[in-house]
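Data card: per-record layout.
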Amino acid sequence: MRDAPFYRLKAGAADLVSRCGGQARAGEIIGVSQQQISRICQRDDGAMFSIRAKLDLEKECGAPVLTGVEADLLGFRLERTAPRAPEATLGTPFSAHAQVMIEAADVARVFAHAVDDGVYSTTDAVNCGKALSDLKQSIEAFERINAKIQAGSAM
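The structure for this 155-residue chain is written out next.
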């Protein structure tokens, strides 16, 4: 059945593949062909990742991308329990804020383009979902920088 949760899972799978370096790289990580990864990413194909493949890809990219979508669909939210590995460079609050503003503007641009014909299609929703995911990542990076400053590590 093709419903909203199905399309959210497909968008999450495509986001996961993107974060791992694309279809060819994701295929290498889990030992399947690029064509199989392409099927998994195609929004109208019923192919999905196995649990093992999803775990391997999420480990590779360092984020529970698809698991987070699944949890959200069930009304839950994921929370980190292990300490985050230190990042080589967190940047500054100024650069993080600028990135959030760039991504927020991109969400507005993608959404405006999506609805300029008066219709918001599933393709439009997938495109907006990607822009929203990018915005979420930049907000999370800003939050990490802000938390570090709150903990007493001035930038």
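Known properties of this structure: The mean pLDDT is 87. The chain has seven helices and no strands.

See the next section for split statistics.
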